[in-house]
Amino acid sequence: MTSTTEQPSALPLLTSSRQFLSSEQRIVDFILGNIDRAPHMTSAQLARASKTSEASVSRFCKKLGFKNYRAFQFSLARDLATQTGDVQITREVSLDDVAQSLANIKNAKVREIESTIDALDEQTLRRVVELFAHAGTILFAAVGNTTAVAIDASIKFGQLGLKSIANTITESSTSLALTLGDGDLLVLISNSGKSQRLQRILHAARNGGCTVILVTGDATSPLARQADIVLRTINYEALLTTADFTFSKIPAMLIIEIIYNFLLPLLPGARDAISGYEELIQPDKEME
Fold first, then answer.
1. Which structural domains are found in the chain, ordered by start?
2. Would you call 218 helix, strand, or coil by DSSP?
3. I want to staple 10 with a disulfide (CB 3.0 to 4.6 A). Which of 76, 110, 183, 255 is the partner?
4. Rounded average pLDDT over 200-226
5. What contacts 163, CB < 8 A, 6 or more positions away?
């Protein structure tokens, strides 16, 4: 498996996953609710404020991949300093203050884009683009609200002249995965990386020896451990008042757009393929 992450960064780890123990969740909730002062607190202060223990804070930091609390604290302070800049940012989104709310949303979404791009490893990206460029068949698979990303990706790469498929029915994707072989790609899109339905599709594809690429917010998830290549997305929904629902399509779609833009000048005839596609659908765009 190839991963795009080299060293932990505190804020993405806190905001991209909600799969924490109850004591850990209290730590996360306190930090995200007090981003102005949390980075400056000692581990003992954070433990008291989050109604946990100092040992729980220490274990939590190590679980996230940090050597100790000090390393976590430094990373969090650095991330939040970059995030806030000279603009006052809060977590609130309300029609009572539209200007501030828009600034909060803009901050979260810009940070998602910047952090997702920063997490990309150049060598891994080169490999992915080459695999797409020479793939026989590309099957995109997702479940739930991520399905829209898979459908968009199949259309986008199909416009480049690549044989790309996506299906809204899991059973159909599973049967298609059984037909994949050497030189084909299975691209799974899952924010959590824990979908059992996607795992069945992955197992079906393994029979033919195709390459499995996972686009996910959790590079340590069960699907990530089984994929050949992991492209990590960074999600900052938890910086907004929608903290209990932490999925954002923007980072996943950004990964698709990045691959697409690298393929466009690389594939011979790609621009002609796009022109041919546009000519075919042109009648649907004509209105009297």
1. 8-83 (1.10.10.10), 122-283 (3.40.50.10490)
2. coil
3. 76
4. 92
5. 135, 136, 137, 138
